[in-house]
Amino acid sequence: MPLNAVPDYDFTVRAKVTGLAAKTTYYYRFVAGSDISAMGTTRTAPAATEAVPQVRFAWFICQNWSANHWQAMTLMAGETDLDFVVHLGDYIYETTDDDTTEPTHPAILLPGGGTVANTLHDYRTLYRTYRGDARLQTVHAHFPMGRDLGRSRILRRLLADHQTYTNANLQQTARRRAANQAWAEYLPVDWGDVSFDLNNAAYDNIRICHDFHFGTLVHLVMTDERLHRDDNVVSEAAIAQALGHDPVNGNDLVGSRYFVPQSVLSQFEADDTQRLGRVPSILGPTQTQWWKDTLKASTATWKVWGNEVMMNRLWLDLSALVPAPNNTIFVIDCDAWDGYRSHKADLMSYVKTQGITSFVAITGDLHAFQAGIVRDTPDPATGTPVMIDLMSAGISSQPFFEEIKSQLAGNSLSSLTSLISTSSVLDAFFERNNPDMLYTDRDGIGYASATVVTPTQFIAIFNKVKFLNPDGSAPQAPLDKCTRLTINAGAVSGAVQDNV
Predict the structure, then answer these.
(1) What's the pLDDT band for 109 if we cut at 50, 70, 90?
(2) pLDDT band at 208 (very low <50, low <70, confident <90, very high)
(3) Superfamily assignment of 48-499 in CATH?
(4) Cα atoms in the Cβ-side hemisphere of radius 13 Å centred on 273
(5) Domain-wise residue ranges, the chain
(6) Sign of the CA dihedral 431, 436, 437, 439?
């Protein structure tokens, strides 16, 4: 099949091959003159109506070029019997560092100068560089990869086309389009499937929600949780003004996106609901209806949601632990589903009323291994369990334990650091406040795999890898531990956890 590499798409090419047989392994390569690519492998899914005995897949997130190491990809590529892999976000980071801690990665120099990508050339440079890593290339060469395909980190910073780096909330349409275009050029997506229109001037010129059937056993439903969402419910500028901070140039993430008092979130959600004429949403009205219709119509044994941000409740009750004004209940991460609680309740209520069972979310973003029950309402005493959320830590990005210490430093909540002195203390603290948590490890890197999915069980493995050695080198034997979680079909009350 002849293909033309043209400068309009940075000399990238793609081929949509049709007429393939179901449940078949294919091999492919690209030839350009005397240059021949490495051999790639892909497997087509079984027909949607075929009963299959089992499916195996893996999911991974957040490979920061300049952090830790990427040995988890070598381990994942070694799982040769995976049917596919899914990337759930932060395939690239749009920020670069002068010094890197990943031993084999040189520093990235952006064409536009500086350390933050802004232009199409900058984003192309990032994708070209990331795709140059041999371990990531091996993962792509060994397995078909399910969409979301890890859209760039900038897409979590540009909600509805507005940046959230500072309190100013500036519109940056050109930057959004540049990030979208480079993503579509450098990742293996069918532009027809994802409705990518380069000539459409609107910021939402791309649609990536999609679903895949693997026989009658697994129905994978992928959503886009950045492009169509409403802005963060709590305004950074409003919080900055209330604290006497700079409402334009500052960055008041604590109090607006992280560690938000529950009462503050409720008030802002009520205000946003009145302004929008509906509750603030992550999926947006059109995608929400697609998600509901797709799940309702699914006849697969296991419904698996490729979900980008945490569904589990993560609250912290400090009413008896600290003095006013912080003696209240905090929502830890309002960038996740906790920050859009009415929208989350609507989706989970729908799952309950429609009788959708054997429903599991595979999730990323938080940089933690975590598993827990999700209810139609978040109170364990009254809510009905409707799904299990399984979250993977990042390939290399800073673990949540380190991030949360950074967030608490230098503000009115800094006294909390004494309550979370170690990662195990942090995990225990959060589990006491969130009893639906079944497993937590918030100080790790690695990936997750659904090692066996059968008509009766969904068995997931959290593969935690070691950090860098004291001398800065990557560990020769990177695997630290594996934790297995077993979910029975039809059950949403819990998951059996054990080490393997």
Answers:
(1) very high
(2) confident
(3) Alkaline phosphatase D (PhoD) (3.60.21.70)
(4) 11
(5) 48-499
(6) positive
